[in-house]
Amino acid sequence: MRFFYNAVIAFFTVVGTASPVPEAEDQPDPKSVYIESVTWNGSGCKRGTSDTTASLSDDRKTISVLYSNYVAQSGTGSSASDGRKNCLLNFKLHVPKGWQYTMSNTIFHGFADMGNGGCNGYVKASYWFSGQTGSVGAQYNFPKNALGNYETTTTVQAIWPTCNIPTMFNVNSEAYISCSKNRGQLTVDSIDHTYRETYILSWRRCD
User: Fold this and answer.
1) Is 126 exposed, middle or buried (0-12, 13-18, 19+ CB in 10 A)?
2) How far apart are CA 196 and CA 123, in angstroms?
């Protein structure tokens, strides 16, 4: 069974200044935008391993992150720490002078088993730019009967980095599950053994 969730999730904002994403979007020459570096670390994406990859789409509007070992589980045989997994990603994007970008949507793909109604679980992500105060993010709570591959789109409020000053783009995602009975799994490991997060970028000119 495969189920899809396309919903605007209630976003949370911590301090920081946020603004709507412009409706009419311009963007720089794709050849001038690229990932200079990316690092990751967390219980769902251990530092120094090859089980996580990140790539930028040809049109420079999407960052895709693939995982192969990002699994939260709860119930018989699981420890308390097994129920919560996270991954912190730090991107350094090369951005041409006079341009800014922000994240407007996050798409989560994976597999969920809420233990036949005996579990609670969610996926969430927050992001921020280094050197600035505050972060924004969104969370999706799975229904009690969730069982199968899922895809859910979350929309976040936009925050923009300072113009023409290189900075790191940071994303912290989390998968959580807790079961009072039965055994459940919120895997970041779908049928093709790949869990994917897709970050949709929006661009605007700045000075």
Assistant:
1) buried
2) 12
Beta strands in 17-129 (DSSP E): 34-41, 52-56, 62-67, 70-74, 84-94, 99-113, 119-129
pTM over 0.70: yes
CA 94 to chain centre: 20
Q: Which residue is associated with the tokens 């790949």?
A: 194
**Cβ neighbours of residue 8 under 8 Å, at least 6 residues apart?**
154, 155
Q: Are 120 and 182 in contact (CB under 8 A)?
A: no
**178 within 8 A of 120, measured Cβ to Cβ:** yes
pLDDT tens for 149-198 read 998 888 888 899 999 999 999 999 999 999 988 889 987 643 344 568 88
